[in-house]
Structure formats: structure tokens, C-alpha cells
Amino acid sequence: MSLVNLKQILTKCSLQQTQRSLLHTTAICNRVQSGRYRITAKKDFPLTYEMANPPHQIAHRKSWNSWNTSNLQGGLRSSETAVEDMFIRKFMLGTWHGLFVSEIIVKRQHNMIRVAGIIRQSISPRKVYFLIGYSEELLSYWLQCPTKIELQTVADRKDVIFKYI
Amino acid sequence: MNILKTTASRFLRLPNITSNFKYATAVETASKPQEVNEPIDKLYKTIELELRGNDSAVLNSFAKFATTAGKHLDVQSKSWNMRKPVHEKFTVLKSVHIYKKHRVQYEFRTYFTFVQYKHLTGSTADTLLEYVERNIPEGVALKATKVELQLLPDHLEPPKAE
């Protein structure tokens, strides 16, 4: 039983004008569930700031995870850039397994790609430096652009939790 | 006598000129022997930068940076954003299969900002543009348009006053 059917029935019943016009139907766009987390009974599901703000808050309380000029008027290479960004994210998540506590931010300036994120301090700094060099080298070779990895570390996973749901 | 040419490409350098040229504003004529071998610096009437971005806050901040950099080099600079942003929208089906009545709408926004520098020499222009271009934030595109002042070529003569 949809709203459109209901409206058709009401018009056929020839109601008064005021009652008929109270029902407004459009192509339904307002019910969304993407990027939103369900409230749990125990209220112990942790959300970071990014997870806590749903997608309609982008450009208001949130900003984007990929920064490039491919989607401007006259921008070039938007699909290739998007696919490369997805590849960078999968690569970083796999190489730094279980270490990222934030989203991976990809920024492109001129020819350079800068990958940023927050990691946990669960492995030794020596290993972190090795992984940084390894990731930069391989990503630069695959993407054919100088790639810089800029990481910040956080002692505890709980430091990036914004609220519990 | 000067003529204006609006272009974004490089010009051929003018041949070495001795002291019988005049610009609209008074300029010291160089007739020393060591300066004859150096190419004459170009003069730019205006350099206009068109900045495009997805985020108006980033654009405004960068325009402020660009004008401040110009002012530190004693170049008259100003910025404005009178061009309306372009919202490019598209509507797609929300579901993978059926449910034609349920859609999702996405949009890309392009904001525009302009920065203008007036009365620059070639070397100042090169330095300033290089500095501004190197510090472009990610997600901002820049297009530079230069208006240069050139001498009237020798084969064109002003009409005789008779």
C-alpha cells in the first residue's frame, strides 16, 4: 500500500479540496539508511566523529576523504582518480592491518599524492618507518606519481571515539 | 605608444631596444653597455587567476593567501567571487533491482573565485605565480590569464597629424 495508491483512492472518493490536497507525493528520496548506524540496546557500539555524522552533513560538519580537482567544471580523469583512490585505500588497509583508526584521506596536489590517516601505536616505530617506506615506494611505482604518506598516531583506539550508540 | 594583447601563451621577446622607446608611465631608459645584452623584462598590465574548487571556504582562504602574498611584494591585488556556483546534479535509482520510484540524488558543486594582480614586471610575475601555484591546496584548480604591454612594432607608424 503506497502513498500514491492512497492519493488515487482519496481523489476518487471526491473529498473536499482541502482534505485532498493535504497529501503530497513525489519520487521518494527522503528515506535513506546509508552511512547511518543503528542504536544498540546496550549503548556500547563506538562511533568516530566521521561515523557519527551521516552523509548529509558532508560540507557542513564533515569534509571529504578524497581531495582532487577531477570533479570540477572542466576537471579531468574523474573515474580513473576515483578508482586509484579506492586502490590506495584497500592497499593501505591491507598493509597496515588493523592499525588504522580513522578514514584514509587522499589528497592530490599537482603531481603528488598525499595519503593521510591516524594509526594506533601497537607496532614499534621501526616497523612503522619500514611500512611507510614500503608503501610510498610501491604506491609511487603503481600510480606513477610521487606519493607521500603522512600518518599521525594515537596511543589508544578509544581516543578517536566520539560517542557510543 | 602601446598595444594590448590578451593571451595566456608566451610571447617572443622583443629585440634589444635602445633609448628611443616610451611607455605610458615614465621608465628610465637603459643605454649602459652591460644592459644591452640582457633581455628586457616584460610588463604585465594585469594577471587574473581564476580559481575553481568544491569547497567555498577553502577557495576564500586561498584567495586571501594569494592577495596577501601579492601585497607583501607591493603588487596591487584584489579578489572577488561574482560568478555563481555551478551545481551539477544527477538522480540514480536507489536500489539495485526494481523500485523505480525510489531514487537518490547527488550533486557536484563548483565554486569560482578570481584574484587579480595589477602592474607587474615579468620577473615579479614569474616569482609570484610560481609561489602561488606551488601552494595551491588540493581540490583547487587555477587558470592564469596574463595581459601584457608591448611596444608598437616598428613597421606600424602612427598616422601623420595633418
UniProtKB/TrEMBL annotation, chain A:
InterPro entries: Ribosomal_uS3m (IPR026146). It is found in: Mitochondrion. Pfam families: MRP-S24 (PF14955). It comes from the Eukaryota. GO terms for cellular component: ribosome. Keywords: Mitochondrion, Ribonucleoprotein, Ribosomal protein, Transit peptide. Belongs to the universal ribosomal protein uS3 family. PANTHER family: MITOCHONDRIAL 28S RIBOSOMAL PROTEIN S24, SMALL RIBOSOMAL SUBUNIT PROTEIN US3M. This is 28S ribosomal protein S24, mitochondrial. It comes from Nicrophorus vespilloides (Boreal carrion beetle). The lineage of its organism: Eukaryota, Metazoa, Ecdysozoa, Arthropoda, Hexapoda.
From TrEMBL, chain B:
Pfam families: Ribosomal_S10 (PF00338). SMART domains: Ribosomal_S10. InterPro entries: Ribosomal_uS10_dom, Ribosomal_uS10_dom_sf, Ribosomal_uS10m. It is found in: Mitochondrion. Gene3D superfamilies: Ribosomal protein S10 domain. One of its GO terms (cellular component) is ribosome. Residues 48-145 form the Small ribosomal subunit protein uS10 domain. Keywords: Mitochondrion, Ribonucleoprotein, Ribosomal protein. The keyword Mitochondrion applies. It comes from the Eukaryota. Its main location: mitochondrion. Belongs to the universal ribosomal protein uS10 family. This is Small ribosomal subunit protein uS10m.
